[in-house]
## 1
Amino acid sequence: MNNLAIIPARSGSKGLKDKNIKLLNGKPLMAYSIDAAKKSGIYSHILVSTDSEKYKIIAEKCGAEVPFYRSEENSSDIASSWDVVSEVLKKYKQLGVEFDTFTLLQPTSPLRDDQDIKKAYHLLYEKKAIGVVSVCEMEHSPLWSNVLPEDGSLEGFLDFSSNKQRQKLQKFYRVNGAIYMAKVKEFLENQNLYRSKCYAYKMTTEKSIDIDTALDFKIAEIILRG
């Protein structure tokens, strides 16, 4: 199979400046995703999608390829990940290269490793799926949450029929942002990965950290140091 790993790493992050190349325990953040993709052994191409020459140089030193830059249109903070994926697939096709599957590996998930990627890939074919998305169990049940009115009143805040002990509540899961894997043909027909023949790959909460703030970065450092 011709499989593509896409690591989106635009410059200009507002929350944490240059987070995609910020050193995490001595390695650029994006390097963790590049290394995981390489070690998984399932990709013919590992691409970093970026708008920055500086990022391109770092990505290539880490073992990824950057045969083209991301367009200005898809370098804004309002461009979706699927816009980026579609652009990458289109540009590769123009170069005469087409793929059976792609995996979007966000660099902000450095604790997702090669074993997670391989297990997600096996799930894709075991289930004869068209897509696999990684999830983790929610830290707190949404049944214990609600919106608040302006006066802060708690009247009707909880539904007593679902107000049970934590251990007795149904498990809820959330998308953790670490792995988005899909068959290219079906993705180009319908970019919705939350439909029939798409399945969840479960990850632990510890490995599901998604770096968006300086605090997230520090937590990832602590976990990586063991």
Note: The longest helix spans residues 81-94.
## 2
Amino acid sequence: MNDTAEPTVVIVPGLRDHVPEHWQTLLAARLDNVRTVPPLERDGLSRAARVAALDAVLTDIEGPVVLVAHSAGVMITVHWAQQPTRPVRGALLATPPDLETPLPQGYPTPEELAAGDWNPIPWRRLPFPSIVAASSTDPLASYRRVAGMAEAWGSRLADLGDVGHLNPASGYGYWPRAEELLRELIDATAATTAAPEAVR
């Protein structure tokens, strides 16, 4: 495998899946080599089904991969990374939710999350380099909790400031910094050739 090649970018959406005006959707349209984890037709709140859907996309790709996850997509990525089935060069993890505390109205309840086996949040170091992009005003997670996740996962923490949950309801939309952080991650990991359990 030539890990110095330009990687395939895999977009990992949150539980709302594909929103046309979402920054992940707009980012995917601007990239040449990109795959998006498809929506689930059933078991949408099953963490295992979501992880399996990500794994199916990754299994189908040859060559290096970089992940771009948002919201619950971050948790899908982190759960997948507990038992990775292939090398991943790096991941951009934007505004992870704190699923261990009750979410605002309109989001899954603690009971629904428990039924879907989303908790506990994995707090083990990730087997690949990563950037956690954190909001100071995210209604789904406090900055302190997200900073703690970044530290536990061995991620670089990027402070985005006041961006809410970084979704259309918060005014995003096209998010140009996604491309900046993605390029930074790709360039910084260009020489990564280690096996998935050895990557740092």
Note: The longest strand covers residues 65-70.
## 3
Amino acid sequence: MSRRRTLALPSWLPVDAYILALIGTVFLAALLPARGTAADVAGGASTGAVALLFFLYGARLSTAEALDGLKHWRLHLTVLACTFLIFPLLGLASGGLVPYVLTPELQAGFLFLCLVPSTIQSSIAFTSIARGNVPAAICAGSFSSLTGILLTPLLAALLLGSTGGGFSADSLLKIVLQLLVPFLAGQFLRRWVGGFLTRHKKVLGLVDRGSILLVVYTAFSEGMVAGIWHQVTPARLGGLLAAEAVLLAVMLALTWYGARRLGFGREDRIAIQFAGSKKSLAAGLPMASVLFGAHASLAVLPLMLFHQMQLMVCAVIAKRRSRDPEPESARNREDAGSGPVSDPAVTVTS
């Protein structure tokens, strides 16, 4: 009988340590924002860190493995529709909350959150815990990330326009140079650097996280210097949290019950729910720093809050799904050695 590993999350408060590091970085930027020459140095380092991040994303993503998953195309199209169609429509509907619940700047960040691709690591981890279709979750997350490199900036240009803190053709060019070009370079060089990246996965994971912390510090420092934080009152923050809670609840319900109406089985529905209802902090933060400039701190605030909310809620759902009666087909596959088994190295911070 196989031993099932579970994701190590505190039962009473599933807060990832990296989220605490992000919060600490925000407080550091509030107390000691980079100014003058220090701001120029931090900005240059942040630009380089973003390019490095997307080079590593491209070098790690196995296009061949993603293409192998095309045989389950209905599931992947469902996840992509949730991520890049339904989410953006709900984000556009949030315009009705201005100015009563959200400020225009917070609503722009809320809409940007809805344009970001899905996660990979956390979708896999939660799908595995809930005994869902793990290979499908891997492919769905990969498709979403690959599609988001191109589609998220285009959707931002179409839907955010000038409300995105100065979004322009220049911002789109920066996206191409800082995100797309490094990503494609990583894909091209993957055959030569893939082995090195695999052997040094832990060290490069720290590079990933450190780069994102630098991006967050730079963005929030610019926001502090520009004096935009006076717009975020406790009432506005509470309204943002309430709007995000509704958004998450709608997407969790829609992905679960909608997938059932489409004829998907339990394991596929689990993969669709976890891959189709979440947004990637790792992909969204660097994009926001390029798209929003000095307004990036307000733009990424909704994404950071939604990220933690989705982890906490999905952790509870995954644990409950793991206690569901196991279908006969799943037991037969597990007896044959092909059942879903979680990867102990998988984290939930993407």
Note: The CA atoms of residues 72 and 295 lie 40 Å apart.
